[in-house]
Every structure is written in C-alpha cells, then in structure tokens.
Amino acid sequence: MAKPDGLPPMEYRFLGRSGLQVSAIALGGWLTSGGHVNPESTFAGMKAAYDCGVNFFDCAESYADGESERVMGEAIRKFGWKRNDLVISTKIYWGNAFGEIKANNVGLSRKRVIEGMNMSLERLNLDYVDLIYAHRPDRHTPMEETVRAFNHLIDSGRALYWGTSEWSADEIAQAWRYADKLNLIGPLMEQPHYNMLERSKVEHEYVHLYRETGLGITVFSPLKQGILSGKYRDGVPSDSRLAQTKIDRIAGFWKETGKEKFQAIIDQVNKLEPIAERLGIKMSVLALAWVLANPNVNAAITGASSPAQIYQNMQALEAYKKLTPEIMAEIDGILGNKPPAINKTNGASRRKEGPINGKANGGVSNGGAVTAAERDAIENEYRDFFWTYTEEPHRTRRLAIIKAHPEVTKLCGPEPLTKYVVAGVVALQFFLAHYLRNTSFWSLKFWAIAYVFGATSNQNLFLAIHEISHNLAFRSPLANRLFAIFANLPIAVPYSASFRPYHLTHHKSLGVDGLDTDLPTAFEAVFLDSILGKAFFCTFQIFFYALRPMVVYRIPLTWIHALNVFIQLSFDYALVALLPQYFSVNSLLYLLLSSFLAGSLHPTAGHFIAEHYVYEKITPTQRDPTNNIAIPETFSYYGPLNLVTYNVGLHNEHHDFPAIPWTRLPKLNAIAKEFYDELPHHRSWSYVIWRFIFDEQIGMRCRVKRKAGGRVVGGGTAVATAKVADWKEDEIEA
Fold this sequence. Notes:
Blueprint: E1 12-14, E2 21-23, E3 25-28, H1 39-51, E4 56-58, H2 67-79, E5 87-92, H3 110-124, E6 129-134, H4 143-155, E7 159-164, H5 169-181, E8 189-190, H6 200-205, H7 207-213, E9 216-220, H8 248-270, H9 273-279, H10 283-292, E10 299-302, H11 307-314, H12 316-319, H13 325-335, H14 372-382, E11 386-387, H15 393-404, H16 417-435, H17 444-469, H18 477-488, H19 496-508, H20 522-527, H21 531-539, H22 541-552, H23 559-578, H24 585-598, H25 606-610, H26 620-623, E12 636-637, H27 651-656, H28 665-671, H29 673-676, E13 681-682, H30 685-694, E14 704-705, H31 729-733
Parallel strand pairs: 3-4, 3-10, 4-5, 5-6, 6-7, 7-8, 8-9, 9-10, 11-14, 12-13
Antiparallel strand pairs: 1-2
C-alpha cells in the first residue's frame, strides 16, 4: 500500500532534557516484530513508518524471545537505512529464554545488564542502540549496581542513553540520587503505560520528576491494546490482539479484567465516539491524539499490523492540535479518571515539523524555571510542616516484606537477653551513684562521669523501656510492665507507665496532628525556628518530650501508673534519707543529671531528632499535599552507637516490625536488604544534632504531619488541646 497524500508531516520532540530528537509517533515491536505479525508484514509496517518520518523504533529482548530484535535488525539492513537517521531502543530484564538456569538471566545485576545488552546487539546486528531501558525495577539488586551497569553500557559505546520502564517515581529518584552521588548519568527517560484509561503515573506520580530530573516520557500502549480503537465495540475479532490469549500479557489482561469489566470499559469508550465523529477522525486517532496532547509525552510507541494502520495513526499529528481545552474537559468528564492537576512540564519542547534528518526548527522552553516572585510565594505558602494525605509507609512496606520474605515473621517475640542487659546497666548506675555520693556536684569529675557513663546508661534505660513497651522482654504483659518500672529506677523520675500508651499511639498514628506526641507543636515551631531556638530545643529536649504529651492529650491514671510513681518516689527517698552509708543527695542528683544529659547535647540523644525529622531536600511539588507524593518520614541510623541503644537506630526496621526485638533487627535488615538499602539514612547522630542546629534548611517544621488517620491505642480521640483520651485500662496495662 502506497503512502497516501495529505498526511501531516512528522513532528520531532526532544527526549527529556537531552538534545536527542525522537519522532512523536514511534513504532514498537511487542506484537509487530517476530510475534503476532509475520516478518514480511513487519518489514512493510516499518517501511511505511519510516516513509512517514518515524525515526524511533522500539523493541525488547523479551519480545517473542528475542525474535522482535532479530526481525527489526533485518528490516534495517533490508532497506539500507542509515544508522544515524534512526533511534533504536531495546529493553533489558527478562532473559529467561536465553539460558537454562533462571538465576542470572532475570533482573538488573551488572552481569545480566551487560550480557543482555551483548545478546541484544547480536540479534539486532548493530554496534549500539540509542536507548536502553531497564524493563522493570529489580529490588534484589542494589540500585548502585544497576546505575553503574547502565553507565558502563554508555561508557563502552553500546548505548547512548539509558532509562526505565514501569518504575515508580521513588525508584527513578533513587537512581538519580546514586547517579548524582557517583557523578554518573541518571535515567533520561521512562516508558510507562499511558492512555485515556491509564493516567496516574504520567499525569500525577512522575510530575515532580519532570522539573527535577528533566525526565523524558515515551509511552507504550496508547490505544490500550486496541481497546481505544473502537474495534471491540461489537466483540473481540479473532485476528485482534486481545484474541491472542496464549501470550502471557494478554492472558493476564483477561484474568485481571474479566468479561463484565471489559464490557463496562467498552461502553465507556463508546461514549467518546461522538467526539471523534465531530472532529472527523477515527476513535483510534482521537485516542492517540489525546496522548500526544500531553506536553510531557515525547513519543507514543504504537503497534500496527499493517501499513494502513500506520498511515491512519499519522493523522493524530494534526488531530491533537484540534483538542481544545473544552474538548479535553468533555473527554475528562466521560472518563472520570483525571488525576489532580499539577502544571509542571519536563522542558522537552516540541519542535516544528521538519525533515527526518533532524534539521527541525522551533524554540525551547525554559524548562519551568522558577521566578523570584514564584519562589517567594512558594516559601510563604510552604513555611510550615510537611503536610500529607498519604498513608504512613510502614504498614505497606511490612506487607510487601512479608510477601517477599515470609520468614521474617519468625523473628518476632521476646528477647531473653534484654533483662540481663537492663539489670547490668541498673547495677552500674547504682554503683556510680554510690561512688559519687561524696563528690561535689559542681566538680568536673561529677559532670564528666555523668556525661560519659551516666547519660549513656540512662539513654540505654530510656530505650530499654521503649523495647519493653512492645512486650519484648517477657511473654507476660504484666511482667513487662513491672520490669519497666524496675528499669525506670536510675532515671529518678517515674515515666515508664505513661510512656507506653503515648509511644504505641505514635506507632499507630505516625504523623497525625493531635495524636502523635512525638511531633513538635505549632508553638514550638514558631518560637524555636532559629539557631538559638534549635540549640535551646536540643539542650532541653528531654523536657519537651516529657511535657508535650500532656499538652496534646492526657491519658487516665491506672494502678500501673500509681505503682510506677510510688516505687520511684520511694526509691528516690531511700537514696536520700534511708541509706546514708551508701548514698546521699548527690547520688540522686547524679541520676537526675544523667537523665537530663541523656536528653540534651549528647551523641545518643541524636536519635530523638534523627528518627523522624526530614533531612532530605523536599521540592515544592512534593510539599503540596494535594499531589499525594510521599515524603520520607522515618530514617534509620547505621552506626556504632546502636551497640548501646538497643539498635534503635534501625528505626525504619523497628516501625515496620515493632514485634521484632533489638537483637534481631539487623537480621531483618539483612533479609529484606532490597527494601532498606535505598532508603535515606544517617551515619552520625552527632552530625544530626549539628546540622539540626546550624542548617537553615532543617528545623522544627521538618516533620511530616497528617490531619487525619491513625488512632489513640484503646480507641477514643484526641485533639490539639489537652483532653483525656478514651483509653481502656486493661489495654494500658496489657
């Protein structure tokens, strides 16, 4: 079939922030090369596309077990096309068909990426590809290894650019963090599923990446496997894609969708037909034009079984310009699936139509640069906590880890070693209190011992009580409550009974304003938002953590609280008045000073800030809660002080699995390494305190807050003004 007259000229768009131009309509090889369509038909389709100005041809190693690449390479040689006129892409991940042992033939390890690239080039009979995609994310391979592997392909001349396909925004951002850190090239483009029925990633999840990384978008399935073409209005033709049920992806589609849901989709698509008729175009052209109208889409990868389909697709180059805001709104009204709008683009401007040799004209946008006025407005609007509507991350990650590694559940349960460590630290504090009974409170010796040994010991006991609050010292809840009172003795102030309900509410209501008492109040944020204010907070933070819960909401007193107060005050009185030959007032002062220093400018006190204050750079797009972009809100610390703090530094791990004791948290990290390696974390608690005080970008407001969600353990509600929470006494005591 000869190329019809009157087709619009091809349009070329920059790929992301690069200088590479790709045809707005590309031809893919999933079912059109070596698969559903025979080679001769594929050759005819590729020739028709090339004649229409298509320079971008896409395939993957897994398409028809490599036959897609082989046939595409044959077409390039058959027609004698110049390599510099073409943009060829392929994708690496599934190489099962090329080996007998699956182990190293799937994924994105360095071995898999390099060997997969070598085999793809051999099938294509090319020296290099222009674009190489990581076909899926690989959570079993460290991100650094994957980034280095794709950079190796670029450095060795086997690929010119690398990108991703079907990765989450977080995973793409992680790849960029490693690339920036290692001075390497980050992923230029993403190939997601995008069409009228699948919109969330391109229009919502990736939006902040367009500005931050200049992410390019080359979408696949713009017609939703032909569903948006209108050809299924009267059923599924035997020669159509969806009739090919032996293909895994098609079989998976039918299994997931089912006939009733499929018919509902078709009914919805049929409502779009009148719009296509008014514009004088086919439904398939309308669907493709709708995709091309998105300024963040650099190329729409189409599939076609005949030259006629390709020529018809070209009409979308003219049709998308007819999609006025009114028509787009009408389409959105029918679809009812438009994500919240965020007006950001990737700066990959369109070029005016031009010849396939790339000599196109047209201007380049400024990539969305922020003006001074816009920046001031942003700072005024977002000079507050990081508000979010997203769910706290730990439940979701816990379920994902259990699914991937069900053996982690065996790590849960009490740790017998805890009671011996606590007994030893309590004994040490009793000894030092005795040792300093006749030493002047104002002497250097007194303060040095209190800072080095006393504060470290009492911080250890703070965190022992934290561990015991999760019932991880004994199997009996009552034994844990009583043992916490024992661990409380050297702290000199009764608090173990009150700590547990507030802390468990922190777990169940992470970041919820008015429930999570670990969050700074608005008063703190206003009056401590300066270097001096933050220094004051760090010096006296033990008082903030002790008094803030009572300001936020109060819990009822139970016999456990009464017992805690009675035993603690009796112990303090005994030190001062009943055992003069062993202790004195200075002994009690030593214990009180140890507790104060443990929550002051002490290295171990850094964990209070490190656990949930956000040290990552957060963009205005992320800060806008309507965008539903998750902000990291829990941070682990991997350093030597975990040895004396019950591994509290492994804080993501602890929040994910509160029932796993301190001795087994490192094992959890090792088992689920792929879930934790890429999360932002700290290496020094001392540096955390230093940055908190002196870094202007970090302060009291750097916490993630939610307006709703979570609950006070035991039921009931709590608000920002002090009130009694609706606790059940037996739950507090459990």
